[in-house]
Model the fold of this input.
Amino acid sequence: MAKLLILYDSQTGNTEKMAEAVAEGARSISSVEVELKYFARPEELAEADAIIFGSPTYYHEITLPIKQMLEEAARTKVTLQGKIGAAFGSYGWSGEAPEQILEILKNRFGMQTIEPAISILYEPKQAQLEECRKLGKTVAEEIVSK
Ligand SMILES: Cc1cc2nc3c(=O)[nH]c(=O)nc-3n(C[C@H](O)[C@H](O)[C@H](O)COP(=O)(O)O)c2cc1C
Done:
């Protein structure tokens, strides 16, 4: 069964709401196994067909748990080449993290990214959660059609 990993960090719950909506959208495609969690080891990343990362922006950056996960994957040289990748996150004023994640997925890991990343100001509203559901569904459909 095709596998989609959704990995996220959230300190005050805004990105978490987005993550849950992304997972809900992805789960509407029944032939894809969807796992939503904070952390995955490099081997788990390598086993997934698609990985969606969620990080809020703190101090103009991706938060540490997500950054460390990406660095560990780079260090262990897992092959993520050609897998589907996407990114989302909540922000307050500058919102760099989701775009930074996409850059890393593309340039460091050679993943095929779904663009644009979804960035939402503070707490997501209903319509914005719908955008998140759509992202999850799009990525799940993409794996199935591959
Ligand atoms: C200490 C601190 C630093 C922050 N730095 C940034 C920043 O550099 N750029 C930005 O867009 N938002 C910044 N924010 C706002 C958060 O990204 C915003 O509150 C977001 O909704 C948090 O998401 P979360 O609930 O998933 O943790 C900062 C917030 C705090 C408390």
